[in-house]
Amino acid sequence: MNEIPMTGERPVSNAPDIQALNEKIKQESAFVDLLNLEMEKVIIGQRAMVSKLLLALLSNGHILLEGVPGLAKTLAITGLSKCIDVDFSRIQFTPDLLPADLIGTMIYNQKKEEFNVRKGPIFSNFILADEINRAPAKVQSALLEAMQERQVTLGTETHMLPEPFLVLATQNPIEQEGTYPLPEAQVDRFMMKVVIDYPKKDEEKRIIRSNISSTPYPTPNKVVTPAQILQARKTVREVYMDEKIEQYIVDIVFATRNPEQYGLEKLKDLISYGGSPRASISMAMAAKAYAFTQHRGFVIPEDIRAVAPDILRHRIGLSYEAEAENVSSQDIINELLNSIEVP
């Protein structure tokens, strides 16, 4: 593919392959608008959360969602599963949860004198792992292994998980008593960490009206098939990314590791560790998925800036100095994006 110089928002090129790719993606991404319309029937506000769910789904990644209770996290993932007509499981993580409660176990059949597999709720397309940090590490690792390998081993048999497969894990930022914080290595397996806030005043009024109305609560219609989602994942990988955009991603991630090399000496003592190679891979895939949802066949710098905070938020370790100065990972990300040269 010919190299395309990036100027502003559009690439300067007469390359027919890019034009053909644009047309292909406009056709294959048409379901994105229908999906958003259906989701707006049941989710008032929280458009960012819905769009991030779609990005993770198209990128074959998973989301760690942080927000107080009552912000439509369950409603969002159930609504999305109905729009695509796939299986959905909600798992409430508690301190007494066992790995077998999640992935299943082997049950002895006395009549046949053999062990039979009883699959757990992990064998669904969409999984809501509610308050994941309330379960001990053994249960968390069982879920995260399934996320990474897309398979579960029960006894001597390995069982593949259904596709598409998406995990939305939530954690409450308020209550920390009786919780088991996710280790950094496990958190790194989540493609994105999304922080959601309360709805706006006008949105909350609409939420009240829709919930106390005498008319039945709306349900989304099926607008896309699982096969279309799997095909869209393949098409997302075809989205063109210029080498300058790749370098931009590498510069951002390397600046989290060695900020002094990018003229950001003031951040050196605030960061204890930076993003891993998974951050670079996730940023590239999420940017391609973002371009796809914008019906575009190429990635622009604005796509990187749109997905970078959610990719890096949980991959930047804050030092004691940062905590003492009340500096958040979001503050550091903003400083990086404002300082690193945009191609």
Description:
The protein has helices spanning 16-28, 30-42, 47-59, 73-84, 99-103, 137-149, 184-187, 201-212, 226-238, 243-257, 277-293, 301-312, 320-324, 329-339; strands spanning 6-7, 10-11, 63-66, 88-92, 104-109, 114-119, 126-130, 151-154, 157-160, 166-171, 192-195, 271-273, 317-318. Helix 9 packs across helix 11 and helix 10 crosses helix 11 (277-293). It has 343 residues and is of the alpha/beta class. Helix content is 46%, strand content 15%. The relative contact order is 0.16. A five-stranded parallel beta sheet has the order 4-7-10-3-11. The protein folds into two domains: 33-219, 3-Layer(aba) Sandwich (Rossmann fold), CATH 3.40.50.300; 239-343, Orthogonal Bundle (Helicase, Ruva Protein, domain 3), CATH 1.10.8.80. The protein is built from 14 helices and 13 strands.
Chain-wise SSE layout:
Layout (H helix, E strand, L loop, with lengths): L5 E2 L2 E2 L4 H13 L1 H13 L4 H13 L3 E4 L6 H12 L3 E5 L6 H5 E6 L4 E6 L6 E5 L6 H13 L1 E4 L2 E4 L5 E6 L12 H4 L4 E4 L5 H12 L13 H13 L4 H15 L13 E3 L3 H17 L7 H12 L4 E2 L1 H5 L4 H11 L4
Helix pairs in contact: 2-4, 3-11, 9-11, 10-11, 11-12, 12-14
